[in-house]
Specification:
The protein is of the alpha/beta class. It is 33% helix and 18% strand. It has a single domain, classed as 3-Layer(aba) Sandwich (Rossmann fold). Helix 3 links the parallel strand 4 and strand 5. The chain is globular, with a radius of gyration of 17 Å. GO terms for molecular function: GTP binding; GTPase activity.
Length: 249
């Protein structure tokens, strides 16, 4: 089905589409807060470890009613052997990391992308930066004491391009009830084929995702590949060239 045909089918009044979204990423990166803000419009400071939770909700996209089946998976190592069971029939993955911690993005690239591609080689990925508000509190005592360095939007966009994700979105479950629905809208459009990897310009003829997720090499966000701000002042221009179809919110 062509992109135009898909769009036409979505624009039919009363059209209903089911979308299965699987949230994957390190523990405590903000996955559960993200889905609870979207489904229930609530936020809680207390951290409760997640096992496997399934949420359902609806969202209107144009004249289409999207029925979301959202699977919130645990980032704990104890679930490594059973977590992939939730990946079956996924339409799109939201690969999450904590914007306030560069190690979280490094983990997303070195472990979670590899795991997804091991089980679902072609399912599209949306890279999702959670807790974007932590950038503004970087200089507070808490983050300074823990020596956490936030991820810049430029680093996240380069990571998006590097792993072959279709789009990059940023959210703040604590302070914004606008960015979160928009992030899930983007994920739904990716799942429905309205935004595809063919629309995204890759730096080479081969999708970056196959390279990163196939080769188990250690990747650091602070490496020259992703952190060239000091050595290259025009980093934003470079980002636009290499990942211009990733979107940041």
């Amino acid at each position: 089905m062509s992109k135009r045909e898909k769009t036409d089918s979505l624009e039919r009044p009363g059209a209903v589409k089911e979308v299965k979204i699987v949230l994957v990423g390190p523990a405590k990166c903000g996955k559960t807060a993200l889905v609870q803000r979207f489904v229930n419009d609530t936020f809680t400071e207390a951290y409760v470890p997640t096992g496997f939770e399934k949420y359902t909700t609806k969202q209107k996209i144009a004249d289409t009613s999207v029925d979301y089946q959202i699977w919130d998976t645990s980032g704990g190592g104890a679930y490594d052997s059973v977590r992939p069971l939730a990946y079956q029939d996924a339409n799109v993955f939201m690969l999450c990391f904590n914007v306030g911690d560069q190690e979280s993005l490094t983990s997303t690239i070195n472990k979670w992308c590899i795991e997804i591609r091991r089980h679902c080689r072609t399912t599209p990925i949306v890279l999702c930066g959670c807790r974007a508000d932590t950038r503004s509190v970087y200089n507070t005592m808490t983050y300074s004491a823990q020596a956490r360095i936030p991820v810049t939007s430029e680093q996240a966009l380069l990571a998006c391009n590097h792993i072959g994700a279709v789009a990059y979105v940023e959210t703040s479950s604590q302070y914004s009830n606008i960015l979160v629905p928009e992030a899930f809208r983007v994920a739904a459009e990716v799942a429905l084929g309205l935004i595809s990897s063919q629309d995204k310009v890759a730096p080479s003829s081969k999708p970056a995702s196959k390279k990163v997720c196939k080769e188990k090499k250690t990747y650091s966000v602070s490496s020259p590949t992703l952190n060239r701000i000091n050595g290259k002042p025009d980093i934003k221009t470079d980002v636009q060239k290499t990942a211009k179809n990733c979107c940041i919110m």
